[in-house]
């Protein structure tokens, strides 16, 4: 955990050297239909749920070295344990523990990455802390464009999620797997996703409610391929969804959704190719990215959105 301080409004968290708050803020604002947080006036407002407590926080830049986390509403965090949990949550969300120096050293000489690194210097892989949310987002996003995926997520969250209210506004909490595990596909029929996707989401919720699928279990695997195999055993989770979750939630540095349409389109944009690159060509380019495949993918995605 990074050095932090307390003040009368909340907590100050030391940021790593290669971190640019505004660059990350710009990423978080890429779709106006995002429902899990609100971004405006150089601040992020969102609900954080830790130790079975829900608190609404405002995250802003205190100066070039600290993020300020101000507690706005919800549970009052009195214990040091709870405050440390908030710090860990923010650190994980912004991936503060990763040292980007080796990535930038490699990527600044890479023909596919050099432009993205120059444009988005200080960008971190923004994480998805909750495994169920990450899996749902992966399933919802299968074979549709990003705009429609955000629409589906909002419909899902607003129908089955809960809220904290502050100054007349609702701030959403992602639906729990316990709640979704008790639903039938028909209960979700007014959400514009396919019946198969509704079944997949409910099946995942049931596995998590039984304790058969947990973030802790997936983090205990020795390598990426073991964790990927475990995820792809689950109905509705293929290699793309598995690698997306391994990248955004479980922080495997070598997770690589090689068949991702966004990755392919970003490569076409950067290289000027008119045709779709072959998987063999992508693997050849990616051979220079060893143990940085996740960051390379994330930065290439950012070239598009």
TrEMBL record:
<dbReference type="InterPro" id="IPR051912">
    <property type="entry name" value="Alkylbase_DNA_Glycosylase/TA"/>
</dbReference>
<feature type="domain" description="HhH-GPD">
    <location>
        <begin position="140"/>
        <end position="305"/>
    </location>
</feature>
<dbReference type="InterPro" id="IPR023170">
    <property type="entry name" value="HhH_base_excis_C"/>
</dbReference>
<dbReference type="InterPro" id="IPR037046">
    <property type="entry name" value="AlkA_N_sf"/>
</dbReference>
<comment type="similarity">
    <text>Belongs to the alkylbase DNA glycosidase AlkA family.</text>
</comment>
<dbReference type="Pfam" id="PF07934">
    <property type="entry name" value="OGG_N"/>
</dbReference>
<dbReference type="InterPro" id="IPR000035">
    <property type="entry name" value="Alkylbase_DNA_glycsylse_CS"/>
</dbReference>
<dbReference type="InterPro" id="IPR012904">
    <property type="entry name" value="OGG_N"/>
</dbReference>
<keyword id="KW-0378">Hydrolase</keyword>
<keyword id="KW-0227">DNA damage</keyword>
<dbReference type="InterPro" id="IPR011257">
    <property type="entry name" value="DNA_glycosylase"/>
</dbReference>
<dbReference type="InterPro" id="IPR003265">
    <property type="entry name" value="HhH-GPD_domain"/>
</dbReference>
<protein>
    <recommendedName>
        <fullName>DNA-3-methyladenine glycosylase II</fullName>
        <ecNumber>3.2.2.21</ecNumber>
    </recommendedName>
</protein>
<dbReference type="Pfam" id="PF00730">
    <property type="entry name" value="HhH-GPD"/>
</dbReference>
<keyword id="KW-0234">DNA repair</keyword>
């Amino acid at each position: 955990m990074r050095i932090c301080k307390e003040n009368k409004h909340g907590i100050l968290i030391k940021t790593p050297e290669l971190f640019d708050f505004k660059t990350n803020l710009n990423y978080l604002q890429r779709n106006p239909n995002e429902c899990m947080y609100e971004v405006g006036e150089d601040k992020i407002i969102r609900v954080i749920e830790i130790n079975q407590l829900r608190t609404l926080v405002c995250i802003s830049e205190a100066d070039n070295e600290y993020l300020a986390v101000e507690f706005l509403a919800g549970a009052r965090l009195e214990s040091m344990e709870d405050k440390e949990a908030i710090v860990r949550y923010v650190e994980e969300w912004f991936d503060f523990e990763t040292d980007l120096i080796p990535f930038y050293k490699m990527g600044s000489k890479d023909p596919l990455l050099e432009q993205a690194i120059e444009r988005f210097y200080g960008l971190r892989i923004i994480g998805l802390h909750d495994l169920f949310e990450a899996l749902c987002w992966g399933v919802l996003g299968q074979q549709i464009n990003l705009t429609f995926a955000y629409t589906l997520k909002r419909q899902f969250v607003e129908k089955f999620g809960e809220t904290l209210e502050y100054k007349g506004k609702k701030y959403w909490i992602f639906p729990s797997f316990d709640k979704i595990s008790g639903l039938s596909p028909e209960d979700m029929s007014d959400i514009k996703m396919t019946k198969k996707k509704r079944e997949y989401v409910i099946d995942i919720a049931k596995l998590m409610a039984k304790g058969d699928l947990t973030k802790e279990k997936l983090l205990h695997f020795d390598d990426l391929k073991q964790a990927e195999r475990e995820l792809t055993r689950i109905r509705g989770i293929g290699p793309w969804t598995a690698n997306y979750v391994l990248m955004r939630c479980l922080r495997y540095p070598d997770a690589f959704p090689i068949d991702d349409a966004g990755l392919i389109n970003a490569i076409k944009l950067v290289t000027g190719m008119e045709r779709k690159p072959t998987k063999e060509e992508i693997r050849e380019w990616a051979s220079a990215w060893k143990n940085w495949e996740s960051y390379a993918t994330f930065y290439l995605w950012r070239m598009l959105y």
